[in-house]
Amino acid sequence: MRDNSRFVLALSLFWAFILILLGGWWIHLFMSVNSGGPIPANFVRMITWEGTFFFLTLFSISGALLVFYLRGLKKAKDLQDFFSSITHELKTPLASIRLQSEVVGMKLSGVSKEESQKWGAVIRPLERLVQDSKNLENQLDKIIQLSRLERTGSLDRRAINLLSLLKKIEKEWGYELNIQVQHDHEVWALGDEFGIELILRNLFENTRQHSPEKDVVITFTSDEKWTFLTYRDRGNFLGDTNQIATLFYRHNSKRGSGIGLYLTKKLVKHMQGEFKMLTKNPFTIQIALIKTTAPSQ
Q: How many angstroms separate the CA atoms of 231 and 243, rounded?
């Protein structure tokens, strides 16, 4: 949305530049004719009427462009504020539903085997309710973060232990996946903790929705400047690799929102890192974050 607004603004500035050039040309033409001797009255009248009409037309178009730009900017801001507000409003009751469902599930998990069979018809839908609540909460978090990046573009970067953070995220969001982590030592990088969490949650969700098998391999490597996170699953991406992290791009898939990988790439960019796709089959992407060391105690 903001990129479109910038394009309209650039077009308006270019139009204004053309106006200045044309104005300079008219002045040059008038002075050239004036230096050659007396100017016929008909020529002056023609120049006056045509020039006035021409400039009125140009300024009218420029004014219309400016009005459209300001209206589009206001509409985009109002839309972003609306989505940000509604997602925040939905997040609180959704978190409450999830928490209460988990509490009930924990109580039912402690019953005897005979009672467990009796309550089985309740436990299974309750587990599905918790799972669906988590999925919906993840979607809301993505919308909130995307709206925040579009408005401010700021993240809180600090030294992050990627292995510790991955273990925490895997425990809550790595359900249904068989995740294998490969690393040689403790891995530290500069990044935003919630931003990295969203990146991993997006990748886990992408595997659950699009990969026929749920095996995931996450590899950490590093060089003098970068810490690399390589994520590989059994998926086979059939779309255009140049469009993979484009907003709402889903190729031919009817699943997913089309904002997960776009948000992932945007978060990496705002953390001054790099995002790229390595292979289509198996689906492999690499995220590079600035390498750092553990903060001193």
A: 19
User: Rounded mean pLDDT of 138-161?
Assistant: 77
pLDDT over 80 (residue 58): no
180: phi > 0 → left, psi -120 to 50 → alpha, else beta; which? beta
Domain span at 252:
158-290
Q: What is the mean pLDDT of residues 57-76?
A: 74
Give the residue ranges of DSSP H helices in the chain.
2-35, 41-109, 113-118, 120-151, 162-173, 193-210, 260-270
- Domain membership flag for residue 227: yes
pTM of the model as a whole: 0.63
Residue pair 191/273 in contact (Cβ under 8 Å)? The answer is yes
Instruction: Say if residue 103's pLDDT is above 70.
Output: yes
Into how many domains does the chain fold?
Answer: 2
Which residues, other chains included, contact 124 with Cβ-Cβ below 8 Å and sequence gap of 6+?
none
